[in-house]
Amino acid sequence: MDLNDFIKNFAEQFDETDPSEIRPDTAFHDLEEYSSLIALSIIAMIDEEYDVVLKGDDMRSAVTVEDLYNIVCSRV
Hints:
mainly alpha; Non-ribosomal Peptide Synthetase Peptidyl Carrier Protein, Chain A; 54% helix
């Protein structure tokens, strides 16, 4: 699994946020568009693309996109 591909898939969950704003060190909870609905679509994307099931606690504990990537990597 590649971090850049993960970031691309992650960025696709946002309609109004420019993909260039999403980097490994992006604190995604602080993005203006981030909401519980976006969190659910990220969880669904991770399940579909990587066959990893995340819980709400995983989303809350991850601060950056790379944190989330590392959680997913640890469960692949």
